[in-house]
C-alpha cells in the first residue's frame, strides 16, 4: 500500500515537475548545454530531461498494455531490473539527436499524460498492489510516483550536482 491519495499523488507530481521546470528555467542559456562535472551517466541537462521522458514512455507502454489485458515487460522488453544501468544508457543514447528544446516539450506532454492516467483511478486502485496484476506486485500509484515526482526530484539533484549549483532541495 502507498501512503497517499490520488489527489496527493497528482499534487506531488505537479509540484516536483514545477520545481524542476523552475530550476531549468533559472539556468542561463550557456549552462543548459554545459557538460556536467564528474562521470555520471547523464552528461547534461538534455540527458536528464531525455531520461525522464523515456521513463514516461515506458510507463505509458506498461499502462497501455496492462489496461488492455496484457502483461507488459517491466522495466522494458529485453531488460530486467538488474539491468537498469544498461537500459538507462540505451535510453540515453536513443535521445542524443533530440534538442533540449524539443525534449522539454515532449516531457511536458508526457507529464500531462502520466497525470491523466493517474486521474482515472481511485485511491484504492492506485494504492492496492493487487488492483492491477500487470504491475508485478507494485501499486500503480507507486509506479506513477517513481516515474513522476520522485524522478523529478532526482533530476533536480542530478542537474544541481552536475552543474555544481546550490542544493536543489
UniProtKB/TrEMBL annotation:
Give the source's domain of life in one word: Bacteria
Question: Transmembrane segments in this chain: where?
Answer: none
Q: What's the name of the protein?
A: ClbS/DfsB family four-helix bundle protein
Question: Which species does this protein come from?
Answer: Microbacterium immunditiarum
Amino acid at each position: 500500500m502507498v501512503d497517499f491519495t490520488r489527489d496527493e499523488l497528482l499534487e506531488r507530481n505537479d509540484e516536483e515537475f514545477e520545481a524542476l521546470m523552475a530550476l531549468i528555467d533559472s539556468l542561463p542559456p550557456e549552462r543548459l548545454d554545459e557538460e556536467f562535472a564528474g562521470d555520471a551517466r547523464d552528461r547534461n541537462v538534455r540527458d536528464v530531461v531525455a531520461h525522464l521522458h523515456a521513463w514516461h514512455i515506458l510507463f505509458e507502454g506498461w499502462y497501455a498494455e496492462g489496461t488492455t489485458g496484457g502483461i507488459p515487460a517491466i522495466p522494458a522488453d529485453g531488460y530486467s531490473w538488474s539491468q537498469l544501468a544498461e537500459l538507462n544508457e540505451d535510453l540515453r543514447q536513443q535521445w542524443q539527436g533530440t534538442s533540449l528544446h524539443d525534449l522539454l516539450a515532449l516531457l511536458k506532454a508526457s507529464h500531462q499524460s502520466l497525470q491523466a492516467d493517474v486521474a482515472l483511478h481511485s485511491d484504492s486502485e492506485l494504492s492496492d498492489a493487487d488492483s492491477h496484476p500487470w504491475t508485478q506486485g507494485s501499486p500503480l500509484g507507486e509506479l506513477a510516483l517513481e516515474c513522476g515526482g520522485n524522478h523529478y526530484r532526482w533530476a533536480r539533484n542530478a542537474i544541481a550536482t552536475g552543474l555544481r549549483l546550490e542544493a536543489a532541495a
